[in-house]
Amino acid sequence: MDFRKLEYFIAVCRRKSFVKAAEELHVSQPSVTTSIRNLEEELGMVLILRKRGGVEMTPEGKLLYEYGQKILEDIEAVKRQMKSISQNHKILRIGMPPLMQSNPFLDLIEEFQKENENIEVTIIDHNTKDIVEQLKDGKIELCILAVFDELDKGLSGVTIGEGKICACIDERHKLAKEPAIPIEALGGETIIKPGLEVFRSGFLCSMVNKECNKRGFSLKEGKTIAQLSRYFWDITNNNYVGFFYDDLWHKGVQEYLGEAKVQTVLRKPLLPEFNYEVVIAWNDEKKLSRCADQFIKLAKTKEAALH
Question: Are 33 and 105 in a shared domain?
Answer without folding.
Answer: no
